Please model this.
Amino acid sequence: MRRSPPPLGLAPSQPGPQPGAAPEKSEKLSASLNPIRPHHFGYDQARHLLWRAGFGGTPAQIQTLASWGPEKAVDYILDFDKAAADPVSGDLFDADIMRPASAEEREAYRKAQRAQDEDALAKFRQERQNRERSDRSQMTEIQKWWLKRMIETPRPLEEKMTLFWHGILATNYRTIENSYHMFLQNQMFRRNALGNFGQMLFDLIRDPAMIKYLDNDESRKGRPNENLAREIMELFSLGVGNYTERDIKEGARALTGYTFRDDEFYFDQKNHDNGEKVILGKKAPLDGDGFVKAILETRACSAYVARRVYGFFVSELPPIERLPDRELDPSVRTVLNGLASSLLGARYDIKPMLRRLLLSEHFYSPRVMSDQIKSPVVLVVGAVRSLNTPVRDLGILNDALDLMGQNIFFPPSVKGWEGGRSWINTSTLFVRQNILTFLLTGKKPVGYDPTADSTRYDPTQLLAELSKADPSSANDPDRVVEYLLKLTIGRAPPAARASLTEFARSRGGTITPDLVTALLLVITTMPEYQLC
Amino acid sequence: MTTPTSFTRREFLGSSLTLASASLAVPAFIQGSAYALHNALGGLSSAPGVSDDRILVVVQLGGGNDGLNTVVPYGMNQYYRARPAIAIAEKDALKLSGSDGIGIHPAMTALREMYDNGLAAVVQGVGYPNPNRSHFKSMDIWQTADTSATGDGWLGRYFDAECCGYGKGESGTAPKSPKAQRADATDAASSRAQTTDSPGIAIGRTAPLAMQGRMIKPISFESAELFRWAGQDIHASLADPYNRIARREPAATEVRPDSNAAFLMRTSLDAQVSSELIRKAVALRPATAFPGNELGRQLSMVSSMIRAGLKTRVYYVTQGGFDTHSGQGGPQGRHANLLRDFTTAVKAFQDELKAQGNEGRVLTMAFSEFGRRVGQNASGGTDHGTAAPMFLFGTMVKPGVHGDHPSLQDLDDGDLRYRIDFRNVYASVLDDWMKASSREILEGTYKGLAVIKKG
Model:
């Protein structure tokens, strides 16, 4: 499988600042949301931006962004709609596998039940099981489709934001057992990826997958189910401490009748409670939209969203109930306040806030850079994109995501993935190393058909930028090792650099594709490679 | 969280894994087992130099084991009427001393032998309210110990509670002061919890939900060969730079001790040690001959890890194939083979533990996500049903048959009504065997059954 390299970096590449042109390393965490000065934005910063706001970059992409300077680089990433991407068509997948039974089918089933016709009932059960089985395989296909899209998209931030929303507004296929609804939800997240958070919530309370996942289809006037209202307030928009139990009860009433039919939202007027409610101090006969608006009008909502965005792009933060905003590191608190103000100022448009963040001195603080643990998706997608390896078998990659703890469309609970250090333990570390070995060499993990994928990976293209800058250095083991380390882990720790250089020399010292692959094999097992 | 001692991990690694010389610098994963020859729970092991830590081995019988043909109610006529082609005749059923009207499938002679030796307990009619007949849903229910099938795994919650205090889990309450919680959040969420604080080990491609905690994630591998970096097989020369790089100590001059980089370097070092230890352990051939089936292979690996003294307290193994919709057979056939594989593997495991002097330390518990319907279907098999028996093995179980066989007259739409909630069995295992708090871990009060001896 061959694919064109992502066009991020289409512009003619100019020699950017040399690696090492970064500001003096200091351990102080900047509290400033002021834009980074252009002369502080070099290779390291461009590399950091590409990883955090996407899935990493090739040497050419890093150099290009570095040469553009911060404003142009950030805008290029944010204004992704200027790059043409494949539209997602609704008929990519079968919408009808789990369609509701027709009236005739229901009647036939009831008839069999009445007659206690065991054979007919067994057939119904069998047919149901067959459909469930087909739906599960379609779910696997959708997983692979999304993984491929993340790998190939010319709009990395669009997919990264889609992944972000999937992890925050989490729905698990296992509970809803309808792959097409998961697909629809994925499209909804993509549509609102960098859009307006208010719109996201309006869409969310109409999303069949979410309605089903949080039982709102069973919520009726007089018997409201509180699940959706509770999780929206607790996990999606406000955080513990910023609402009362009464707000949840009233919110649940406002959401009654918000259900779906087949694949579409359906407002069930007769099951909707249109009485007066008091939600977050707002008193009116609120419906679902009224409930969302009441949330959006609180300062807590903007602070909460800012905090989640910060946790995803900058540094993991524990859940708000474990570490409230007021107890955060003062510089982080200052930054979060600034982000929340941006969000409010833009009436919940995400982009201006993210722009401010991605341009900020804080975002490029040495303590922030290269200290985020790559999620399994970022690890795999990022490896293919930044090293330009073959895509290889998407099924194996998808299995590996599961083994590493991030089975997409199957987050462990409505809280999404815990993230951060929870990704890492002794067994996931080996899976991480082995999936990189697969990407680089085609050697499949144990347990698959043992014939290796024979597509060869040519790593020497990565060295093009090095030879461009200094033709002789591309044959110098020490320079090549340093260059590869700077590309993959952002720095060149002396001990690792020495071991690798020694290894390269022991293999004759001539820089062949095999030697570069061998170096990358070892480098990608490094603990530091798990960071971005 | 590197312990400042006179021995570094690097020196430990250099000492060719001689435990006696390693002092406190041994990673938490193995620390303890080799030293803790005594502990408060008292002398369970029969051999000197063997740890007394209690171990739980969970055997998952995947696919829905047909309980009615496993523990056979030959005293009930309805059984024969419902299953004309596949029922086990009274003369074929193996009788269990001390219980009337029920016997076990004739393929389970190994179980009867363990039963006769006081090593096996049968718990009848185990299930839960509003049974779900989907494999996935019902398995999740058993694994989360929650009938909504959501939240962390029940054994994961056990590990979370042991490591970090209860309340860190998915739906945990907050028993601690907010301040203590926050201290944990930064501390536990950082280094201690997610390194190899003796997590459970699951043999299999992916770790089961049951073992997934919020803080503590299990180690899982299908074969020990997967628990290592495969890149070194591509060219022998890669092993040397790999080992040097993977086993670096996080130097304070290079990385902040509380940084993710330092955490990763420590975990990487632990992974190398664990990998070596586990692979060395499973390379040891057990003294007992295990049957060649999949469960036998898995339990043989577990017995070797126990013998090697890993500190692991929970192991999880799986036997699949119980989804016998068609041609399940009677005294012989498909279901018979499954039951033979299951019980001969467990018997070999018990024998091996005895030979090691570890049999008093290990409790084995077997379950399936549901039983099957009372009536056979048109294909000579059975469809998804409800309640089924569970099994417990070990010298510390109260041997015998616990609970009554579910009624075949009082059915729920052709299905058995459960008599014992599986969470009562879990509660006994947690409280009486693991000495943990089932009330906290299961988030509810489940009265334990008297299935474990006092000790």
